[in-house]
Write a structure and sequence with these properties.
Helix content is 41%, strand content 0%. The protein is an all-alpha fold. The chain is elongated and about 90 Å long. It binds heme C (HEC) (9 copies).
C-alpha cells in the first residue's frame, strides 16, 4: 500500500490543497491520472514530428496555444498549480508570470535571442519552444527557478525527487544579468554579496547562527522570516562557499506581489518582503531600538544591537543607520535619561527613504547608457537632484557637511585623548577612554572610567558609524557630537 500524503504530513500540508484527492484519482481513475501526468503518450507522438506541426499551427493561427510539446522533463506551471495552489495564485500576479507577454508586446515573442530569459528551459530538450506546443512553459514559471519538475510530479512522495529550493543569488543571476539588467553583477560587488570571513568560519563551525546570522546570513534571515526556529548551530557543516549572504531572496519575495513598494509605478511592485517606507515615532527605549517591526526594509538589519552607553566591552555595532535616521539612541533600561535629544532627519521624507539614495535605478535607454540597477547599494548623487537642484550641488553640500562632521568628531576625539593622557587607566595611555575591544582597559579598568566619558565615547561611535557622513540626519549628528564634547569638557562627573 502507498502511504497517503495525509499520513505523511498528519493531514495538513501548508499551502497545499487537494492532494489526497489527486492521489485518489491516481489510484482510482487512470485516465485522470494520465491527464495530471501530462498526457505522456500523446505528447511523445506529437513531439517526434513537432517541426511540421509547429509550422502548421503557426500558419493556421499565430495565437494558437497548446501543450502537445511537453515531454515530461518540464511539466509547466499549470501542473504545479494542481497542488501548490496558493503559490501559483500569488505567482500568476507577478511580472515573472507575464514575462513572455512583455516580449510579445514589442513583437519579439519568438526572437531566440530574447526568449531564453523570458521562458522556462528554452533551448533545452523538453523546454519552451513556442506558445503553440509548450504554452505552459511560457514566461518565468516555477521551473525557471526550481528546475525541471517532471520527476517530482510523477513521484510526489519521493522526497529525493523534489525540486531544488535554493535562495542562492545565482538562481536569479541566470537572467538578471548583463548590461540591460546588471542586478546580479552589481550585487556581487556590494557588501551584501559578501560575508565576513570570520563569520563564515563561525557559522560553518556551528556557532552564532541564531545571533549574528539574523542579519549576516541570508539562509537564517529567510528561515526566520518564514517562522522556523533558529538554533546556534543552524548552519553547522555547510561549506563556507555555500553560505548565502544578503541575497536577492532576502529583500525580494520570490513568489508574490506584496504591495510594499513606495510608489508602484505602472504595475512595478518589486516584490519587496518589507515596506520600502515606514514612519515610526522615535524612541530611546532599548527594546524599541532593536525591534525590526518598527522599521522599513533596510532597517530590518541596519538597526542597533543591544548595546548602550553603560556597556564597556565593545562599541555599538556599526548597524544603527535607521536609528540615526529617526534620531533615536537606546538607553539602559535602568536609566532612561536621554543623552542626546531625539530629532528625526530632514531626509525622512525622501520618497523611498533609504532606497532613494542607495538603490537608485535608471532603465536602459535605447543604445545609450547601460542600465543602472542600484544594486551596488552605493549612494548615487543623481538621486539627490530631485530636491537639491542637481547632483553636483548635493555632492558639494555633502562634502561641506562631511568636513564639518569630521571636524566635530575630531574635537570629541581630541578631548577624549586629552582626558585619557591625564587619567591613565591600566597603563593604556591615550587608549584609556576606549572600549576593551578597541584596545582600552579591561573590565576592571573600565569600572574606573567616569560615566561622562562612557557617554561621550558611545555617542561618538554611534553617530560616526551610522551617520552616513552626516547625511542620514545632519542636525542630529551635529547635536550628538556637540553633546559628546560637552560631556568631556564640562561635565561635573569629571571634576576631581
Ligand atoms: C500532485 C501534487 C503535486 C504537484 C503536481 C506538484 N507538487 Fe510540489 N510538492 C508536493 C508535495 C506533497 C510536496 C511535499 C510537501 C512538503 O513537504 O511540504 C511538494 C514539495 C515541493 C517543493 C518543496 C521541496 C522542499 O524540499 O521543500 C517544491 C519546491 C515543489 N514541490 C515544487 C513543485 C513544482 C515546481 C511543481 C510543478 C513542476 C510541483 N511542485 C508540482 C505536491 C505536488
Ligand atoms: C540574460 C537574460 C535576458 C535576455 C537574453 C533578455 N532579457 Fe529582457 N529582461 C530580462 C530581465 C531579468 C528583465 C527584468 C528587468 C528588470 O525588471 O530590471 C527583462 C525585462 C524585459 C522587458 C520589460 C522591461 C520593463 O521595464 O518592463 C522587456 C520589454 C524585455 N526584457 C525585452 C527583451 C528583448 C527584446 C530581448 C532580446 C533582444 C531580451 N529582453 C532579452 C532578462 C533578459
Ligand atoms: C523567481 C524564482 C521562483 C519562482 C518563479 C518560483 N519559486 Fe518557489 N521558491 C523560490 C525560492 C528562492 C524559494 C525559497 C525561499 C522562499 O521560500 O521564500 C522558493 C520556495 C518554494 C517552495 C518551498 C518553500 C515554501 O515556501 O513552501 C515551494 C513549494 C515553491 N517554492 C513552489 C513554487 C511554485 C509551485 C512555483 C510556481 C507557481 C514557484 N515556486 C515559483 C523561487 C521561485
Ligand atoms: C528565467 C529568468 C529569470 C529568473 C531565473 C528570475 N527572473 Fe526575475 N525577472 C525576469 C524577467 C524576464 C522579468 C521582467 C518581467 C516583465 O517585466 O514582464 C523579471 C522581473 C523581476 C522583478 C521585477 C518585478 C516587479 O514587480 O517590478 C524582480 C524583483 C525579480 N524579477 C526578481 C527576481 C528574483 C529575486 C529572482 C530569483 C529568486 C528572479 N527574479 C529570477 C527573469 C527572471
Ligand atoms: C541587527 C543586525 C545585525 C546583527 C544581529 C549583527 N550584525 Fe554585524 N553588521 C550588521 C550590519 C548592517 C553591518 C554593516 C554596517 C556598515 O558597514 O555600515 C554589520 C557589520 C559587521 C562587521 C563589519 C564591521 C565593520 O566595521 O565593517 C562585522 C565584523 C560584524 N558585523 C560582525 C557581527 C557579529 C560577529 C555579529 C554577532 C555577534 C553580528 N555582526 C551581528 C548587522 C548586524
Ligand atoms: C538589500 C535589499 C535588496 C537585495 C539584496 C536585492 N534587491 Fe533588488 N531591489 C531592492 C529594492 C529596494 C528595489 C526597488 C528599487 C526602487 O524602488 O527603485 C529593488 C528592485 C529590483 C528590481 C526591479 C528594478 C530593476 O532593477 O529593474 C529587480 C529586477 C531586482 N531588484 C532584482 C534583484 C536581484 C536579481 C537581486 C540579487 C542578485 C536583488 N534584487 C537583490 C532591494 C534589494
Ligand atoms: C538581511 C539584512 C540586511 C538588509 C535587509 C539590508 N542590509 Fe545592508 N548590509 C547588511 C550587512 C550584514 C552588511 C555588511 C556585510 C558585510 O560587510 O559582511 C550590509 C552592508 C550594507 C552597505 C555597505 C556598508 C559599508 O560600510 O560599506 C550598505 C550601503 C547597505 N548595506 C545598505 C542597505 C540598504 C540601502 C538596504 C535596503 C535596501 C539594506 N542595506 C538592507 C545587512 C542587510
Ligand atoms: C526628498 C528630498 C531630498 C532628497 C532626495 C535629498 N535631500 Fe538632502 N536635504 C533635503 C532637505 C529638505 C534638507 C534640509 C534643507 C537644506 O539644508 O537644504 C536637506 C539637507 C541636506 C544637506 C545639508 C544638511 C545640513 O544641514 O548641512 C545635505 C548635505 C544633503 N541634504 C545631502 C543630500 C544628498 C547627498 C542627497 C542624495 C544622496 C540628498 N541630500 C537627497 C531634502 C532631500
Ligand atoms: C539622503 C540620502 C540618504 C538616505 C535617505 C540614506 N542614506 Fe545611507 N548614506 C548616505 C550617504 C551620503 C552616505 C555616506 C556615503 C559616502 O560618504 O560615500 C551613506 C552611508 C550609508 C552606509 C555606510 C555606513 C555609514 O553609515 O556611513 C550605510 C550602511 C547606509 N548609508 C545605510 C542607510 C540606511 C539603512 C538608510 C535608511 C535608514 C539610509 N542609508 C538612508 C545617504 C543616504
Amino acid at each position: 500500500m502507498r502511504r497517503t500524503l495525509g499520513a505523511l504530513r498528519g493531514g495538513t500540508i501548508g499551502g497545499l490543497i487537494a492532494i489526497p484527492l489527486v492521489l485518489s484519482f491516481a489510484t482510482g481513475c487512470p485516465e485522470l491520472w494520465d491527464i495530471i501526468n501530462g498526457n505522456t503518450n500523446t505528447n511523445t507522438n506529437v513531439n517526434t514530428n513537432s517541426a511540421a506541426n509547429e509550422n502548421v499551427n503557426e500558419n493556421i493561427n499565430a495565437n494558437t496555444t497548446g501543450n502537445s510539446g511537453l515531454t515530461g522533463k518540464y511539466v509547466g506551471s499549470t501542473r504545479c498549480s494542481l497542488c501548490h495552489v496558493n503559490k501559483h495564485t500569488d505567482w500568476s500576479e507577478t511580472l515573472h508570470a507575464k514575462a513572455l507577454e512583455a516580449l510579445e508586446a514589442i513583437g519579439q515573442g519568438s526572437n531566440a535571442e530574447c526568449v531564453g530569459c523570458h521562458t522556462v528551459g528554452f533551448g533545452e530538450v523538453g523546454g519552451f519552444v513556442n506558445r503553440a506546443t509548450t504554452n505552459d512553459l511560457a514566461s518565468v514559471g516555477c521551473e525557471a527557478c526550481h528546475g525541471p519538475g517532471g520527476d517530482h510530479v510523477s513521484n510526489i512522495e519521493d522526497a529525493t525527487k523534489r525540486p531544488v529550493v535554493s535562495i542562492s543569488a545565482s538562481v536569479c543571476g541566470a537572467c538578471h544579468t548583463g548590461e540591460h539588467q546588471p542586478n546580479y553583477e552589481d550585487w556581487q560587488t556590494s557588501r551584501h554579496g559578501q560575508m565576513q570571513e570570520s563569520l563564515k568560519e563561525e557559522f560553518t563551525a556551528g556557532t552564532n547562527a541564531a545571533t549574528c546570522g539574523l542579519c549576516h546570513s541570508g539562509d537564517v534571515f529567510v528561515a526566520d522570516h518564514e517562522g522556523e526556529t533558529i538554533a546556534a548551530d543552524y548552519l553547522k557543516g555547510i561549506p563556507p562557499e555555500e553560505l548565502n549572504p544578503v541575497v536577492c531572496a532576502v529583500c525580494h519575495s520570490p513568489h508574490k506581489r506584496t504591495g510594499n513598494a513606495a510608489a508602484p509605478d505602472e504595475g512595478r511592485d518589486y516584490q519587496l518582503r518589507f515596506p520600502q517606507v515606514k514612519f515610526t515615532t522615535p524612541s530611546n527605549v532599548l527594546a524599541d531600538a532593536i525591534n525590526p517591526d518598527r522599521f522599513n526594509l533596510c532597517g530590518q538589519c541596519h538597526h542597533a544591537r543591544n548595546r548602550v552607553w553603560t556597556d564597556s566591552s565593545r562599541e555599538p555595532h556599526p548597524s544603527d543607520q535607521v536609528n540615526v535616521f529617526f534620531g533615536e539612541m537606546p538607553l539602559p533600561d535602568a536609566d532612561q535619561t536621554p543623552i542626546v535629544a531625539v530629532r528625526p532627519s530632514v531626509h525622512l521624507n525622501a520618497p523611498e527613504q533609504c532606497s532613494t539614495c542607495h538603490v537608485f535605478r535608471k532603465p536602459i535607454e535605447e543604445g545609450i547608457a547601460p542600465a543602472v540597477s542600484g544594486h551596488t547599494f552605493m549612494v548615487n548623487f543623481e538621486a539627490c537632484a530631485a530636491c537639491h537642484s542637481s547632483a553636483e550641488i548635493a555632492e558639494n553640500k555633502l562634502a561641506i557637511l562631511g568636513a564639518e562632521i569630521d571636524y566635530r568628531a575630531g574635537l570629541v576625539e581630541d578631548a577624549l585623548n586629552e582626558w585619557a593622557l591625564s587619567h591613565d587607566v591600566q597603563g593604556k595611555g591615550v587608549l584609556s577612554w576606549e572600549f576593551t575591544s578597541e584596545g582600552g582597559p579591561s573590565s576592571s579598568g573600565q569600572a574606573k572610567i567616569p560615566n561622562a566619558i562612557k557617554k561621550a565615547r558611545y555617542i561618538f561611535y554611534y553617530v560616526i558609524q551610522g551617520g552616513g557622513n552626516g547625511a542620514h540626519n545632519p542636525d542630529y549628528v551635529r547635536d550628538a557630537l556637540q553633546t559628546a564634547l560637552e560631556y568631556v569638557e564640562t561635565n561635573p562627573d569629571l571634576l576631581p
